[in-house]
Amino acid sequence: MTPPTAPTAPPTEPAAPLPKLADFLCFAIYSANLAYGRAYKSILDELGVTYTQWIAIVALWEQDDQTVSGLGEKLFLESNTLTPILKKLETLGYLQRRRDTADERQVRVSLTEAGRRLREKGAQRTLVKASGLAPEEFRMIQKTVSRLRDSLLAHAESGK
Q1: Which of 23, 50, 63, 83 has its CA 20 to 30 A from that of 100?
Q2: Is residue 50 part of a domain?
Q3: Which of 131, 36, 98, 47 is nearest to 57 (CA)?
């Protein structure tokens, strides 16, 4: 009598290789953000501000006299992160903060003349050329990354 043979498992497909770090879009964006910080360093050092201070000035230049909460939404910053940035910019003389006369719970921020001059000085310094991209490619990537950000935020807010 021959012993029964064990059933054989059907052949399996080889497992797909796991993605490498360089395959992650999130890492590409994260590391590009770090590279931007390094590339902007000389510009921001010359202006005497940090990146987050700079984007606050740019946002106020686009729409002056806005609430701290509105500015925070625009910059994707929480109030506890934004407030120290605004205090520093106020100390440097680039903006002023004041209570809203219609609703004293709200704080409004606006650029001073020095803040407007700083924005004009910094506006001439861009990294389009340093990116190695043609201006059209640069704009396309900026729009694509913004759409990606908005989609991811919508997904996160939906709880799915």
Answers
A1: 50
A2: yes
A3: 47
Q: Give the C-alpha distances (Å, rounded to integers) separating 113 from 64, 67, 118, 151.
A: 12, 19, 9, 37
pLDDT at 28: 95
pLDDT for position 160: 67
Both tokens assigned to 122: 């910094």
What is the Cα–Cα distance from 61 to 154, expressed in whole angstroms?
27
Which two structure tokens, joined as six digits, stand for 148? 């990606």
In this structure, is residue 102 part of a structural domain? yes
Q: Which residue has the tokens 């992160």?
A: 81
What are the tens digits of pLDDT across the range 77-103? 998 999 999 999 999 999 999 998 889
The 10s digit of each residue's pLDDT in 9-28 is 666 777 889 999 999 999 99
Classify the C-alpha dihedral 68-74-75-76 as positive or negative: positive
Judge whether 68 and 109 are in contact, CB under 8 Å. yes
Total domain count for the chain?
1
Domain that holds residue 40: 26-124
Report pTM.
0.81
Distance CA(110)–CA(59), nearest Å, equals 10
pLDDT in tens, 136-152: 999 999 999 999 999 99
